[in-house]
Amino acid sequence: METIKIVVLLATLSLTQTALTQVKKSTGNNTNIADAIILFQENFEDIDFASRGWYDALRGKITSSEHIEGSTASLECRFLLGERGCEGGSPGRHLFDETDEVYLSYYVKYSSNYTGSNKPYHPHEFHFLTTENGIYVGPARTHLTTYIEHNEGTPLLAIQDGQNIDESYIGVDLTNITEKRAVAGCNGDSDGYGAGDCYLNGAVHFNGKAWKADSIYFQDESGQYYKNDWHFIEAYFKLNSISEGKGIPDGIVRYWYDGEILINHDDVMLRTEEHSNMKFNQFLMAPYIGDGSPVEQIMWVDDLTVATSRVITSIRDNLSKLTSDTEFVLFQNYPNPFNRQTTISYQLSTSSNVELTVSNVTGQKVATLALGQQPAGNYNYKWDTGDLAGGIYLYRLITGDGFTQTKKLLLLK
Questions:
Q1: How does pLDDT run across 338-373, given as a tens digit for each residue?
Q2: Domain that residue 250 falls in
Q3: Of 57, 49, 54, which Cα lies nearest the Cα of 96?
Q4: What are 58-115's pLDDT values in tens digits?
Q5: Is the bond preceding residue 337 a cis peptide, omega within 30 degrees?
Q6: Residue 155 shares a structural domain with residue 286
Q7: Domain check: are 230 and 337 in the same one?
Q8: What domain count does the chain have?
């Protein structure tokens, strides 16, 4: 029988709350990515968002009247007339392990009268942010924010990097002069997709650059693209490379609508050498209409997945398949951070001899939570830290064949 050891060691902070599952599967046409790590998933069955790693807003209305097949509820974002955000708020933000590439999938449905902003901008919907900014940064002016949304029914992916703007050279093409510049507007065209938007807001400039689908895919009439039906949306961003002190326009942006790829570019610029250490590490769900909603309208969201590359999955339909393809799954502890007690969970697909231990920063064992033979199944162990000192921890899953998986947690005292 295999021996599985789960060892908890001190390390760096992460608020990732759900399964980080290594998956290998084919991703189909229009992508060269075969390996995916699921960073977190959200099925919107209840409002206990904090226990699943969300923070900042921790609000939202869950409804059982609208959901995809196999689900029992979804998140309802109702824009009241004149309001900018969802009635009842949204879950907010979720951190995940640092990565050069991010994938988002979710199901979405809009009310039959949904009209969006009736402006050539907004509503904003979903965002990724990076390690170059703090975990509470506003999304509108950062070192990089990505946007997944649609305007007047036309899907789009967009970026802004307003904090990188060289205010001394607004409207000047700096692409072959310096790496200390913005790529989304105000300082030239870094990748051939246009110079982007550049506009003054108070004392500083803001910017933005978008890649759009070729037509309206959230339509008013019944049919394949009817907005009042559920649709499966996928998006993918990969940071461009840095070579010899210069950003190379080989970043990737992709968008799929019910499996049909609508936006597909592998020659974009998302960062310069000045931010060569940039990684994605934060997801923000913040539906927003800046000028206020022109009508009362609704957006429903169900089964959301954030991963490192395309996995084409919904939580209830495919998670069991994804996990069954591996010998085990180590789940993120919850809650995290925690004051005294947290739960560590794992799944065994076959009977195994299991050892679950806790160690301090020097590797010294401080507790044994489980020891011995266990049949296949799911296991949850509550760890009461007692008088242990607070600190940042890492737990590691090791199998007899040499596979190792590591996760992080934080004990607050």
A1: 788 888 777 777 777 778 777 776 677 788 887 878
A2: 26-321
A3: 54
A4: 999 999 999 998 889 999 999 999 999 999 999 999 999 999 999 999 999 999 999 9
A5: yes
A6: yes
A7: no
A8: 2
Taking all residues of the chain, what is their mean pLDDT, rounded to a whole number?
85
Residues β-bridged to residue 35: 24
Report CA torsion sign: 279, 281, 285, 287.
Answer: negative
The 8-class DSSP code of residue 240 comes to P
- Kindly write down the DSSP assignment for every residue of 35-80, as one continuous string: EEEEEEEE--SSS-GGGGTEESS---EEESSS--TT-S-EEEEEE-
pTM of the model: 0.72
> Does residue 15 belong to any structural domain of this protein?
no
Query: Residue 253: which of 236, 232, 270 has the closest Cα?
Result: 236
Of the chain, the percentage scoring pLDDT greater than 90 comes to 64
- Whether the Cβ atoms of residue 175 and residue 166 lie closer than 8 Å to each other: no
Compute the distance between CA of residue 356 and CA of residue 331 in angstroms, rounded to an integer: 13
Note whether 216 and 157 are same-domain residues. Answer: yes
**DSSP annotation string for 76-106:** EEEE-TT-SS-TT---EEEEEEEESEEEEEE
